[in-house]
Design a protein that fits this description.
single chain, about 250 residues, alpha/beta, five-stranded parallel sheet, five-stranded antiparallel sheet, about 35% strand, elongated
């Protein structure tokens, strides 16, 4: 059984959320409180697996609450807000998921599913998330979903769907099968957020997903190009060629 708490100053939203969570047989809502100080005290006294945390508590904000959390009191956190702009900041605190109010059942179902995948039998934390209080969905380079902010919108992207990334002045362009995102971020920054086992930089202006690499073509002495499975071709810099070959086991 996953021991769950709701910390939110919004009484009506808490009642609605409690009703939604009651439909999950393996999830037990132990308590719901409005006070941030009471919530912190409760965590020191109780063993908890999952918290639904509102953006506003009495005495503090949800982000203030996250700042005050310390080991070993670090359960999984699902952050809730009426402002979608809170999502990116919430993930910076390494929360498990973000829910935009008013919350639909489908989103609750998905968030609970993600939380379950991060917890072992009986609600005990699996070894790779113990002590972190987060889901691996957003945990460093193990993440399965990566939030990307574009002109005020936040896209939730699975890194494995990214084919390649190219530099474009002060921006980068992220290419997927049916979508291209233009983001104000550096190549160094985006590479730091991508899984090491999949992505490699082949040029100061190009990062590729090795899973979408079709061939490495020699075009001259020491010169090569990367042919992607969609036909796109990228020049491989001598600086990064060794890293690419190592990535491909060559």
């Amino acid at each position: 059984m996953i021991k769950t708490l709701i910390f939110d100053d919004d009484v009506a939203a808490t009642v609605h959320l409690t009703e939604l969570l009651a439909t999950f047989d393996d999830l037990e809502v132990a308590s719901a409180v409005q006070s941030g100080q009471t919530a912190l005290k409760m965590l020191r006294q109780k063993s908890v697996d999952l918290i639904f945390l509102g953006a506003e508590l009495s005495e503090m904000t949800g982000f203030d609450f996250l700042e005050k959390l310390e080991p070993p009191h670090l359960p999984l956190i699902i952050y809730m807000s009426t402002d979608e702009r809170d999502a990116l900041k919430a993930f910076e605190y390494r929360v498990s998921d973000f829910l935009l109010k008013p919350i639909a059942y489908e989103r609750i179902e998905k968030a609970v599913k993600h939380a379950k995948e991060s917890l072992g039998m009986g609600g005990e934390r699996s070894a790779h998330t113990a002590g972190y209080g987060i889901s691996p969905l957003f945990n460093g380079k193990e993440k399965e979903i990566m939030p990307i902010k574009v002109s005020g919108n936040i896209y939730f992207v699975e890194p494995k769907t990214i084919r390649y990334i190219t530099a474009a002045g002060y921006y980068i362009e992220i290419f997927m099968k049916d979508k291209k995102l233009r983001v104000r971020e550096t190549m160094e920054s985006i590479l730091e957020r991508l899984p090491d086992e999949d992505f490699v930089r082949i040029h100061r202006s190009h990062i590729i997903n090795a899973g979408f690499l079709d061939a490495i073509n020699t075009i001259g002495p020491g010169e090569a190009e990367a042919l992607m499975k969609d036909g796109k071709m990228f020049r491989i810099s001598k600086t990064y060629k060794t890293a690419l070959l190592k990535k491909m086991g060559l």
